[in-house]
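in:
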């Protein structure tokens, strides 16, 4: 009887430890809002639509150069590929970044310079970006982008 109690306790303790370890590992795998912002730009620079879709919500609202795109599918069918082509030739340097986080919402604002040669034209641009993110089951996802 004593051995059965120890065995049950060992199984229960083992399951609790396994669940805590899995939970901790899952938390470690999720990107922070800052990492999501960097991941977005890696996807653009690498022309990787799948990677971009990993962090951009299906219903994302994108403001860019006075235009509006109301979903990632709309962005993919309009400006995404030209943005990727452009960013693949540019060097982006982050000048300042701020993160405001409240519960399951985060806002990441970034000021940067973008420089390089595009279509034989040397460029040196100032850029501002606002990313509004929500925490979901799979981590932070971008729900609003404002680029200028």
């Amino acid at each position: 009887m004593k051995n059965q109690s120890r065995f049950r306790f060992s199984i229960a303790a083992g399951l609790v430890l396994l669940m805590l370890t899995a939970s901790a590992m899952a938390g470690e795998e999720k990107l922070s809002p800052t990492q999501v912002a960097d991941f977005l730009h890696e996807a653009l620079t690498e022309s990787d639509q799948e990677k971009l879709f990993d962090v951009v919500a299906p219903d994302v609202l994108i403001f860019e150069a006075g235009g509006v795109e109301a979903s990632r599918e709309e962005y993919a069918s309009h400006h995404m590929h030209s943005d990727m082509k452009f960013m693949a030739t540019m060097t982006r340097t982050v000048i300042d970044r701020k993160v405001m986080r409240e519960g399951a919402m985060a806002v990441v604002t970034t000021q940067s310079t973008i420089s390089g040669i595009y279509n034989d034209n040397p460029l040196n641009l100032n850029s501002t970006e606002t990313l509004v993110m929500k925490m979901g089951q799979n981590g932070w996802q971008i729900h609003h982008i404002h680029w200028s």
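note: The two ends are 71 Å apart (CA to CA).
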